[in-house]
Design a protein that fits this description.
mainly alpha; 270 residues; 14 helices; 0% strand
Length: 270
Amino acid sequence: MRGHGNTRLIMLLEWACLDCDYGGHGNSFFGEGGYQTRRAQLRYTIRVLLAVVRTGNENVIQDLCDQGLIGSLLVVLKKYKDTDVPIELSILSNTLLILSVVCETDSHRKATFGDEGVDLLLQFLSLDSEKFSSGLGYHKLLLSSVNAIWCCVSFMNQDLFLERGGIPILLDLLEKCPPSMQNLVLGALLDLTEDARAVPHVVTWRGTGQKTAVSLLIELWRAEEHAMGVKRDRNHIMADPATPLQGAEQLMTDVSATLSARPQLLLFWM
Protein backbone atom coordinates (compact mmCIF):
# COMPACT_ATOMS: atom_id res chain seq x y z
CA MET A 1 0.00 0.00 0.00
CA ARG A 2 2.87 2.38 0.72
CA GLY A 3 4.11 1.82 -2.82
CA HIS A 4 0.61 2.49 -4.24
CA GLY A 5 0.42 -1.08 -5.53
CA ASN A 6 -3.36 -1.16 -5.26
CA THR A 7 -3.68 2.01 -7.30
CA ARG A 8 -1.46 0.61 -10.02
CA LEU A 9 -3.44 -2.64 -10.13
CA ILE A 10 -6.72 -0.75 -10.54
CA MET A 11 -5.19 1.42 -13.27
CA LEU A 12 -3.90 -1.68 -15.08
CA LEU A 13 -7.33 -3.31 -14.76
CA GLU A 14 -9.06 -0.27 -16.25
CA TRP A 15 -6.48 -0.03 -19.04
CA ALA A 16 -6.94 -3.72 -19.92
CA CYS A 17 -10.71 -3.19 -20.25
CA LEU A 18 -10.38 -0.43 -22.86
CA ASP A 19 -11.53 -1.22 -26.38
CA CYS A 20 -8.77 0.76 -28.08
CA ASP A 21 -6.54 -1.00 -30.62
CA TYR A 22 -3.56 -2.76 -29.12
CA GLY A 23 -0.70 -4.21 -31.15
CA GLY A 24 0.59 -6.71 -28.63
CA HIS A 25 1.80 -10.06 -29.95
CA GLY A 26 1.96 -11.82 -26.56
CA ASN A 27 4.87 -13.28 -24.65
CA SER A 28 5.09 -17.03 -25.09
CA PHE A 29 2.32 -18.84 -23.17
CA PHE A 30 1.66 -15.74 -21.04
CA GLY A 31 0.06 -14.14 -24.08
CA GLU A 32 -2.06 -17.13 -25.00
CA GLY A 33 -5.51 -16.08 -26.18
CA GLY A 34 -4.63 -12.41 -26.18
CA TYR A 35 -3.13 -11.82 -29.61
CA GLN A 36 -3.76 -8.23 -30.78
CA THR A 37 -5.90 -7.61 -27.67
CA ARG A 38 -5.45 -6.81 -23.98
CA ARG A 39 -7.09 -10.00 -22.76
CA ALA A 40 -3.84 -11.63 -21.65
CA GLN A 41 -2.99 -8.61 -19.50
CA LEU A 42 -6.53 -8.56 -18.12
CA ARG A 43 -6.45 -12.27 -17.26
CA TYR A 44 -3.24 -11.96 -15.22
CA THR A 45 -4.34 -8.71 -13.58
CA ILE A 46 -7.52 -10.47 -12.43
CA ARG A 47 -5.44 -13.39 -11.12
CA VAL A 48 -3.19 -11.03 -9.16
CA LEU A 49 -6.21 -9.27 -7.66
CA LEU A 50 -7.71 -12.63 -6.68
CA ALA A 51 -4.49 -13.60 -4.91
CA VAL A 52 -4.41 -10.22 -3.13
CA VAL A 53 -7.98 -10.37 -1.79
CA ARG A 54 -7.56 -14.01 -0.74
CA THR A 55 -4.87 -12.94 1.74
CA GLY A 56 -7.75 -11.72 3.90
CA ASN A 57 -5.99 -8.45 4.72
CA GLU A 58 -8.97 -6.20 5.36
CA ASN A 59 -6.94 -3.00 5.08
CA VAL A 60 -5.76 -3.92 1.59
CA ILE A 61 -9.24 -5.04 0.51
CA GLN A 62 -10.84 -1.84 1.83
CA ASP A 63 -8.23 0.28 0.04
CA LEU A 64 -9.00 -1.53 -3.24
CA CYS A 65 -12.74 -1.00 -2.77
CA ASP A 66 -12.23 2.68 -1.95
CA GLN A 67 -10.50 3.02 -5.32
CA GLY A 68 -13.44 1.53 -7.20
CA LEU A 69 -12.56 -2.16 -7.44
CA ILE A 70 -16.16 -3.39 -7.44
CA GLY A 71 -17.24 -0.97 -10.16
CA SER A 72 -14.26 -1.94 -12.32
CA LEU A 73 -15.02 -5.63 -11.90
CA LEU A 74 -18.64 -5.08 -12.92
CA VAL A 75 -17.33 -3.44 -16.09
CA VAL A 76 -15.34 -6.63 -16.78
CA LEU A 77 -18.45 -8.78 -16.29
CA LYS A 78 -20.50 -6.56 -18.59
CA LYS A 79 -17.78 -6.53 -21.26
CA TYR A 80 -17.59 -10.32 -21.60
CA LYS A 81 -21.08 -11.40 -20.52
CA ASP A 82 -21.97 -12.91 -23.92
CA THR A 83 -18.64 -14.59 -24.64
CA ASP A 84 -17.84 -18.16 -25.57
CA VAL A 85 -14.05 -17.70 -25.65
CA PRO A 86 -12.19 -19.81 -23.03
CA ILE A 87 -9.84 -17.04 -21.86
CA GLU A 88 -12.77 -14.66 -21.38
CA LEU A 89 -14.78 -17.30 -19.51
CA SER A 90 -11.78 -17.76 -17.21
CA ILE A 91 -11.69 -13.99 -16.65
CA LEU A 92 -15.41 -13.97 -15.77
CA SER A 93 -15.03 -16.87 -13.31
CA ASN A 94 -12.13 -15.26 -11.46
CA THR A 95 -13.86 -11.88 -11.44
CA LEU A 96 -16.89 -13.41 -9.71
CA LEU A 97 -14.58 -15.10 -7.19
CA ILE A 98 -12.99 -11.73 -6.35
CA LEU A 99 -16.41 -10.15 -5.87
CA SER A 100 -17.45 -13.05 -3.62
CA VAL A 101 -14.40 -12.62 -1.37
CA VAL A 102 -14.78 -8.85 -1.23
CA CYS A 103 -18.55 -8.70 -0.63
CA GLU A 104 -19.03 -11.68 1.66
CA THR A 105 -18.78 -9.89 5.01
CA ASP A 106 -19.53 -6.27 4.12
CA SER A 107 -23.08 -5.01 3.50
CA HIS A 108 -21.87 -1.73 1.96
CA ARG A 109 -19.92 -3.62 -0.70
CA LYS A 110 -22.96 -5.82 -1.40
CA ALA A 111 -24.95 -2.64 -1.93
CA THR A 112 -22.31 -1.47 -4.42
CA PHE A 113 -22.72 -4.80 -6.24
CA GLY A 114 -26.41 -3.87 -6.44
CA ASP A 115 -28.84 -4.03 -9.36
CA GLU A 116 -26.24 -4.28 -12.09
CA GLY A 117 -24.40 -7.13 -10.38
CA VAL A 118 -27.59 -9.10 -9.73
CA ASP A 119 -28.70 -8.76 -13.37
CA LEU A 120 -25.33 -9.99 -14.63
CA LEU A 121 -25.34 -12.86 -12.15
CA LEU A 122 -28.79 -14.00 -13.31
CA GLN A 123 -27.60 -13.97 -16.91
CA PHE A 124 -24.71 -16.30 -16.04
CA LEU A 125 -27.04 -18.61 -14.13
CA SER A 126 -29.30 -18.86 -17.19
CA LEU A 127 -26.69 -20.49 -19.42
CA ASP A 128 -27.74 -23.12 -21.94
CA SER A 129 -27.35 -26.60 -20.42
CA GLU A 130 -25.62 -27.84 -23.59
CA LYS A 131 -22.64 -25.66 -22.72
CA PHE A 132 -21.97 -27.31 -19.33
CA SER A 133 -19.80 -30.08 -20.77
CA SER A 134 -18.33 -28.11 -23.68
CA GLY A 135 -14.90 -27.97 -22.04
CA LEU A 136 -14.67 -24.20 -22.57
CA GLY A 137 -15.05 -23.30 -18.88
CA TYR A 138 -18.79 -22.72 -18.50
CA HIS A 139 -18.94 -25.10 -15.53
CA LYS A 140 -16.42 -22.95 -13.64
CA LEU A 141 -18.43 -19.85 -14.46
CA LEU A 142 -21.58 -21.52 -13.09
CA LEU A 143 -19.83 -22.58 -9.89
CA SER A 144 -18.49 -19.05 -9.40
CA SER A 145 -21.98 -17.67 -10.03
CA VAL A 146 -23.63 -19.97 -7.45
CA ASN A 147 -20.92 -19.03 -4.94
CA ALA A 148 -21.65 -15.35 -5.62
CA ILE A 149 -25.28 -15.89 -4.57
CA TRP A 150 -24.13 -16.65 -1.03
CA CYS A 151 -21.53 -13.90 -0.91
CA CYS A 152 -23.00 -11.04 -2.96
CA VAL A 153 -26.78 -11.58 -2.91
CA SER A 154 -27.87 -13.10 0.40
CA PHE A 155 -29.65 -10.64 2.71
CA MET A 156 -28.55 -7.32 1.16
CA ASN A 157 -29.55 -7.94 -2.47
CA GLN A 158 -32.01 -10.77 -1.88
CA ASP A 159 -35.08 -8.65 -2.69
CA LEU A 160 -33.62 -7.74 -6.08
CA PHE A 161 -32.75 -11.37 -6.76
CA LEU A 162 -36.30 -12.50 -6.01
CA GLU A 163 -37.94 -9.68 -7.99
CA ARG A 164 -35.91 -10.54 -11.08
CA GLY A 165 -36.88 -14.21 -11.03
CA GLY A 166 -33.81 -15.65 -9.33
CA ILE A 167 -35.61 -18.60 -7.73
CA PRO A 168 -37.10 -19.98 -11.01
CA ILE A 169 -33.72 -19.55 -12.67
CA LEU A 170 -32.04 -21.53 -9.90
CA LEU A 171 -34.68 -24.27 -10.14
CA ASP A 172 -34.15 -24.42 -13.90
CA LEU A 173 -30.43 -24.76 -13.25
CA LEU A 174 -31.03 -27.47 -10.65
CA GLU A 175 -33.11 -29.45 -13.15
CA LYS A 176 -30.46 -29.43 -15.89
CA CYS A 177 -27.10 -29.16 -14.12
CA PRO A 178 -24.77 -32.17 -13.63
CA PRO A 179 -25.14 -34.19 -10.38
CA SER A 180 -21.81 -32.88 -9.09
CA MET A 181 -23.25 -29.36 -9.02
CA GLN A 182 -26.68 -30.11 -7.58
CA ASN A 183 -25.64 -29.92 -3.92
CA LEU A 184 -24.34 -26.37 -4.40
CA VAL A 185 -27.49 -25.17 -6.14
CA LEU A 186 -29.63 -26.84 -3.46
CA GLY A 187 -27.59 -25.10 -0.76
CA ALA A 188 -28.17 -21.71 -2.37
CA LEU A 189 -31.90 -22.43 -2.70
CA LEU A 190 -32.08 -23.52 0.92
CA ASP A 191 -30.60 -20.25 2.15
CA LEU A 192 -32.81 -18.15 -0.11
CA THR A 193 -36.02 -19.96 0.91
CA GLU A 194 -35.43 -19.06 4.54
CA ASP A 195 -37.08 -15.84 3.41
CA ALA A 196 -40.83 -16.54 3.33
CA ARG A 197 -41.21 -14.36 0.23
CA ALA A 198 -39.21 -16.89 -1.78
CA VAL A 199 -41.62 -19.77 -1.10
CA PRO A 200 -44.33 -18.69 -3.61
CA HIS A 201 -41.67 -18.58 -6.33
CA VAL A 202 -40.80 -22.20 -5.54
CA VAL A 203 -44.43 -23.33 -5.43
CA THR A 204 -45.38 -21.73 -8.75
CA TRP A 205 -42.30 -22.93 -10.67
CA ARG A 206 -42.85 -25.41 -13.50
CA GLY A 207 -40.08 -27.29 -15.24
CA THR A 208 -39.92 -29.69 -18.15
CA GLY A 209 -43.30 -31.35 -18.70
CA GLN A 210 -44.94 -29.08 -16.10
CA LYS A 211 -42.82 -30.66 -13.35
CA THR A 212 -43.23 -29.02 -9.93
CA ALA A 213 -40.45 -28.22 -7.50
CA VAL A 214 -41.63 -30.99 -5.17
CA SER A 215 -41.46 -33.55 -8.00
CA LEU A 216 -37.98 -32.36 -8.91
CA LEU A 217 -36.72 -32.67 -5.33
CA ILE A 218 -38.18 -36.18 -5.00
CA GLU A 219 -36.47 -37.17 -8.26
CA LEU A 220 -33.15 -35.87 -6.95
CA TRP A 221 -33.66 -37.73 -3.67
CA ARG A 222 -34.33 -41.03 -5.44
CA ALA A 223 -31.43 -40.53 -7.83
CA GLU A 224 -29.11 -39.99 -4.87
CA GLU A 225 -30.48 -43.08 -3.16
CA HIS A 226 -29.86 -45.10 -6.31
CA ALA A 227 -26.29 -43.80 -6.50
CA MET A 228 -25.76 -44.73 -2.83
CA GLY A 229 -27.32 -48.15 -3.25
CA VAL A 230 -30.10 -47.67 -0.67
CA LYS A 231 -32.39 -50.71 -0.56
CA ARG A 232 -36.14 -50.50 -1.12
CA ASP A 233 -38.75 -53.23 -1.34
CA ARG A 234 -41.16 -53.85 -4.22
CA ASN A 235 -43.54 -51.20 -2.83
CA HIS A 236 -40.69 -48.66 -2.91
CA ILE A 237 -40.56 -48.50 0.87
CA MET A 238 -37.13 -48.46 2.53
CA ALA A 239 -36.22 -52.05 3.24
CA ASP A 240 -34.16 -51.35 6.35
CA PRO A 241 -35.80 -48.82 8.72
CA ALA A 242 -32.92 -49.21 11.19
CA THR A 243 -30.46 -47.74 8.68
CA PRO A 244 -32.70 -45.99 6.12
CA LEU A 245 -29.95 -44.14 4.24
CA GLN A 246 -27.20 -46.70 4.48
CA GLY A 247 -26.06 -47.60 0.98
CA ALA A 248 -23.34 -49.79 -0.48
CA GLU A 249 -20.61 -47.25 0.19
CA GLN A 250 -21.59 -46.86 3.85
CA LEU A 251 -21.65 -50.63 4.33
CA MET A 252 -17.97 -50.79 3.34
CA THR A 253 -16.99 -48.31 6.07
CA ASP A 254 -16.95 -48.60 9.86
CA VAL A 255 -19.45 -45.77 10.27
CA SER A 256 -22.90 -46.87 11.37
CA ALA A 257 -26.09 -44.79 11.51
CA THR A 258 -28.12 -44.48 14.71
CA LEU A 259 -31.90 -44.66 14.47
CA SER A 260 -33.76 -41.67 15.86
CA ALA A 261 -36.13 -42.26 18.76
CA ARG A 262 -38.92 -40.94 16.51
CA PRO A 263 -38.11 -41.78 12.88
CA GLN A 264 -39.85 -39.71 10.21
CA LEU A 265 -42.27 -41.92 8.23
CA LEU A 266 -41.90 -39.58 5.26
CA LEU A 267 -38.40 -40.98 4.69
CA PHE A 268 -39.74 -44.48 4.28
CA TRP A 269 -42.37 -43.53 1.72
CA MET A 270 -40.52 -40.85 -0.28
